[in-house]
UniProtKB/TrEMBL annotation:
It catalyses: D-mannitol 1-phosphate + NAD(+) = beta-D-fructose 6-phosphate + NADH + H(+). The keyword Oxidoreductase applies. GO terms for molecular function: mannitol-1-phosphate 5-dehydrogenase activity. This is Altronate oxidoreductase. Residues 17-254 form the Mannitol dehydrogenase N-terminal domain. It comes from the Bacteria.
Length: 471
């Protein structure tokens, strides 16, 4: 069978208008897919050069198939099963700064390029004190970006629209802050700082699309069905939302809305972020420890289990939604959409994958809801507290599987697992939660009660009891 190559292209190859840091599954199924949708409608007429941010990566695999790959959309849309696939033609080429730094810097010279996207994971937007302007290349993504921007500035050219998609709050502000830190460290001068501030725009974003990536178990069958080889195919759910904080003028640069994409430009993206983190990531982080301790492996299985479904549904409607400051109807519609996405029969979303770095995820995704719930109701949200107890059981090494977290968190837990005041020690460690959780009235007692009950009867029985209480 033939590998994908240029003979599969149906659209014109447009000039490069976008630089993209990161060749990962998410960006290929999110940004490059959206650019394809604009190009198909003749609205953007631009291509993407992908920069591989790390020495090792997948860009060579992309080059082997003339930068083409297939996006497979599979899921449930408005209650109906939906499946389609499309060859994405928006990538014009790839650049590897570790192999050819000059080619990388040359991107700054291209007048057609207007936009920079990135997703270098949450670890990518970081300042590395050791980075130097003379490095070829700099270690960090912001270091590489600053070097590119400085070259552009020296050439007297206009700046860029810089749109990071990393899942950290205020990602645009964070990235700009680090670029300015490098400007200071490398003594690049006030004129460069002014050019960064006035000629470039950094946007904060919220991205949402579940992208399971390469469909390993079905890839060979899909290739047979499509009639070509594709080592870069990527599977995604059909749903997406792309929220950008900034002025509506960005719609002229990126006519995504016009292309029918769920692109929201707003002057305050925090409500969207709170909604997503609390109603989507919150239940993920709740179900992961409780359902795993009951022997369940995927999000889909949780949603198919009568008791667990009710538990998660009640968590959304009774513990989370009343604490989010957005119109109730809007939140309920969103929650219904999330349940449909969780039930996606095509996505086997492993609870163990969601469990990675659970302690910081609990702090970011559930603790704010817990505190808002307590302030509003003067009582504790039982389902969220049960999740906390389940995490403490897992992190004490008492599950059939190991906790997966940073070395620091695992080491800190190791120190206290044998302590007879384990729960107190864990809850009062502000390094874990950003504050002392024993100060929340009644929390330590309820966590202790649930831990005893988990030992006595298991999480499934407790879930059933909480459901019965809720009727
Ligand atoms: N896959 C999803 O469903 C999904 C949905 C929304 C958001 N996200 C977020 O997007 C990010 C990427 O996900 P993915 O599925 O594309 O992963 P991936 O492993 O396919 O790609 C990761 C990309 O990040 C780069 N990278 C990794 N560490 C880096 C570092 N320290 N510095 C610079 N670059 C680095 C890699 O080079 C690669 O391009 C994750 O942080 C994830 O939380 C994923
Ligand atoms: O990717 P993580 O590990 O940060 O979180 C696990 C899931 O909650 C997450 O991937 C969601 O599916 C995603 O945020 C949806 O856009």
């Amino acid at each position: 069978m033939k590998r994908l190559d240029n003979s599969f292209r149906k659209l014109d190859k447009f000039p490069t208008k976008v630089i993209q840091f990161g060749e990962g599954n998410f960006l290929r199924a999110f940004i490059d897919w959206q650019i394809q949708q604009m190009n198909k409608q003749g609205l953007f007429k631009g291509g993407v050069k992908i920069v591989q941010p790390l020495p090792k990566g997948m860009t060579k695999n992309l080059d082997q198939q003339d930068d083409l790959y297939t996006v497979l959309l599979e899921g449930v849309l408005n209650g109906k099963k939906y499946q389609s696939h499309e060859i994405i033609e928006s990538v014009n080429g790839t650049v590897r700064p570790y192999d050819d730094y000059d080619e990388y810097l040359k991107l700054a010279e291209d007048d057609n390029i207007e936009v920079i996207f990135s997703n270098t994971t949450e670890a990518g937007i970081a300042f590395d004190q050791a980075d130097k302007l003379s490095d070829r290349p700099q270690n960090s993504y912001p270091g590489k970006l600053t070097a590119l921007l400085y070259h552009r500035f020296e050439l007297g050219k206009r700046g860029f629209h810089i749109i990071p998609c990393e899942l950290i709050n205020h990602n645009g502000d964070q990235l700009k802050k680090i670029v300015l830190q490098y400007a200071d460290l490398w003594k690049l001068g006030q004129k460069f700082v002014d050019w960064i501030n006035n000629d470039n725009k950094f946007y904060s974003t919220l991205v949402d699309r579940i992208v399971p990536g390469y469909p390993r178990d079905r890839a060979a069958d899909l290739e047979k069905e499509w009639g070509y080889l594709d080592q870069m195919m990527v599977k995604t759910e059909p749903f997406l939302i792309f929220v950008l904080e900034g002025s509506q003028a960005i719609n002229d640069v990126l006519p995504l809305k016009q292309a029918g994409i769920n692109f929201v430009v707003t002057n305050d993206m925090q409500p969207y972020r709170n909604r997503k983190v609390s109603i989507l990531n919150g239940p993920h982080t709740t179900m992961s420890p409780i359902a795993r301790l009951a022997g369940i492996e995927t999000v889909g299985e949780v949603m198919k289990d009568k008791d667990f479904y009710k538990f998660i549904n009640d968590e959304m409607y009774q513990e989370i939604i009343p604490t989010v400051a957005l119109p109730k109807k809007e939140l309920e519609d969103y929650a219904e959409g999330i349940k449909e996405r969780f039930e996606n029969p095509y996505v086997k979303h492993q609870l163990s994958a969601i469990a990675l770095n659970s302690i910081s995820k609990f702090a970011a995704r559930l603790l704010p809801t817990l505190k808002r719930y307590v302030a509003k109701n003067q009582q504790l949200p039982k389902r969220i507290v049960l999740a906390l107890a389940a995490y403490l059981k897992i992190y004490r090494g008492e599950a059939d599987f190991e906790p997966s977290d940073t070395a620091e968190v695992l080491a800190a837990f190791k120190k206290i697992t044998a302590d007879e005041n384990y729960v107190h020690e864990a809850l009062s460690n502000s390094e874990f939660w950003g504050e002392d959780l024993t100060l929340i009235p009644g929390l330590e007692d309820l966590v202790n009660k649930y831990l005893t009950e988990i030992d006595e009867k298991g999480t499934r029985a407790i879930v059933a009891e909480i459901n019965a209480d809720a009727k």
